[in-house]
Amino acid sequence: MLKGIDPRMTADLLDVLMRMGHGDEIAVVDCNFPAHATAADTISGQLVELPGFTAPNAIELICALLPLDHLVPEGGFWMERDGEGAKPDPVHAEAIAIMTREMPEGGAIGSLERQAFYARAREGFGVVRCTETRAFGCFILRKGVIF
């Protein structure tokens, strides 16, 4: 046990977050997402499992340690529901509220069409799969800097 770190934080997740640098991205995905195949294509090649976490819970845990990037147009993204465009579902609204609270001034959250999300997640640093059951409950977080 370490002081000041949420006891739900796993060693694998902490390791991935520590190895990420400014501008690296991590995908937080739901239980339907092709997580293993996507993670294999990432920089770390690592899939981190967070069983028992909703996507917003996982994002809150991660954002307690990971600074979001406010020096780019969007420091985080959510996956759009097919055919709906940038119309957030309740799972998105919950996560966006957390990311907005954690985002430094000047930062923003964007959305990505599903196939664009898949492509971007494959180019990221790693993948965190939670047990989120709500469809399209997938997000990307971009690591910022601490000033």
Automatic annotation (TrEMBL):
What is this enzyme's catalytic activity, as reactions? beta-D-ribopyranose = beta-D-ribofuranose; alpha-L-fucose = beta-L-fucose
In terms of InterPro entries, this protein maps to: RbsD-like_sf, RbsD/FucU_mutarotase, RbsD_FucU
Keyword hit for Isomerase: yes
Superkingdom, natural source: Bacteria
What are the UniProt keywords, alphabetically?
A: Isomerase
Q: Does the keyword Isomerase apply?
A: yes
**Which SUPFAM superfamilies does this entry report, sorted A to Z?**
RbsD-like (SSF102546)
Q: What is this protein called?
A: D-ribose pyranase
Under the heading Gene3D superfamilies, the entry gives:
RbsD-like domain
